[in-house]
Amino acid sequence: MNRRAQSGTKRWPKANAGFSLLELMIALTIGLLLLSGLLTIFASAKQTYTLNDQLARLQENGRLAMELLSREIRMTGYWGCTAQTTPVNQLNSPHSLSWIINNRLRGYDHLTPGTLAASLQGVALPGSDVIVLTAIDNQPLTITSHDACAARFTLAQSHDLQPNELVSVSDCRQTTLFQIIQADGGNRTLTHGAAGGSIGNQSACLGGDCSGNCASAWYQYAPGTPLSRLRSIAFYIGTGTHGEPALFWQLLNRGDTLQRNELVQGVANLQILYGRDNDGDRVANHYLTADAVDAANAWQEIVSVRIGLLLQSDDLIRSQNDNTTYTVADTAITPVVGTASHPLDRRLRLVATSTIQLRD
Q: What DSSP element (H or E) covers 46?
């Protein structure tokens, strides 16, 4: 009886408990809050990384630009052992770069077009300065003989000098700049006559009494005298390959041709001041713009150069437009308004400044 009763009783398993709708909604809300926090942290980290990356690029571009400018500025006016002697310029007519041979450097306040050498017109952006530097190469060749009457040098080494190339010959008494008329690397010779050349020489005579007898009165360079290529370089801000401002140089190439190269991207403006020494102690008494040096006719008294660069990032990474007025070498670079200005955009910008002493 009891056995049948027990066998006739049926027990059902207890149902599994699930999540209620309210619990699901609470869980989803918490998940969304956590995800939102993670996304905010990720976006902040990405923005910080981008900012630091762009800042590092700006600093690297500034260091590279300053290094290139400083190296050439320190070398300007190097004429061998006659560094402080004005070279004898035998060129027939001044070249767009090499004409500044009587000054080791020449600057331009390029706030208005029309003040630059012809070769720089239309390529240097208005609002930035331009500096032109002249010196000789620091790896000279050596003269073994100079025939003044034949206007011919024989060198100790075979060479790759070319006709129309501008060179300088310098002993410790005189430095002369002239254009090569003919060059023979195998025979180690070159000539400096008055006939021929893309510019030409005023005379075959390189100094002395050029109205006298060539064998006895003309200046003749002794064996062992160094002969060097001319280095004439202009630094300026131009439009780079990506359509943005960049630091360029234009140099006097071999055969009296010009070559332009983009050096550093992201250099938006170049401003320069020149240290003038009024009392002959080789220390700048005050710094002037190029126009002020011109007005005082004081290029021979310049002993140092102060470079100011305004650098800008490639990307728009600021949260708001940059309406800052930057002071670069005493020049105010304003947003949008004025010749010396920068765009009103969200780029990151940085000012770099350096003062370079010219060699004695």
A: helix 21-75
| Domain extents in the chain | 54-357
pLDDT at residue 230 tops 70: yes
Q: What is the secondary structure of 261-329 as a DSSP string?
A: EEEEETEEEEEEEEEE-SSSSSS-SEEE-HHHHHHHT-GGGEEEEEEEEEEEEEEE-SSS---PPEEET
Tokens 């790759």 belong to which residue? 160
Strand partners, 189: 154, 184
Give the residue with greater pLDDT, 257 vs 11: 257
**DSSP 8-class letter at 98:** G
What is the residue type of 335? P
| CA-to-CA separations, 322 to 233, 267, 318, 326, in angstroms, rounded | 34, 16, 8, 10
- Tens-place pLDDT, residues 87-138: 788 888 755 555 556 678 889 987 765 567 777 888 889 899 999 998 888 8
Q: What angle do CA 166, 304, 138 make, to 5 degrees?
A: 35
The pLDDT tens digits for 263-303 are: 999 999 999 999 999 998 889 999 999 999 989 999 989 99
Phi, psi of 250 (to 5 degrees): -125, 120
CA angle 145, 146, 149 (to 5 degrees): 140
Burial of 202 (0-12, 13-18, 19+ CB in 10 A): middle
Decide: residue 70, CB within 10 A, 0-12 exposed, 13-18 middle, 19+ buried.
middle
Amino acid at 213: N
Read off the pTM: 0.79
- Under 8 Å between Cβ of 160 and 185: yes
pLDDT class of 35 with cuts at 50, 70, 90: confident
Residue whose entry in the numeric block shows the structure tokens 């956590």:
34
Look at residue 347 and give its three-state secondary structure: strand
- Containing 349, the helix (H) or strand (E) segment is strand 347-357
Q: How far apart are the first and last CA of the chain?
A: 128
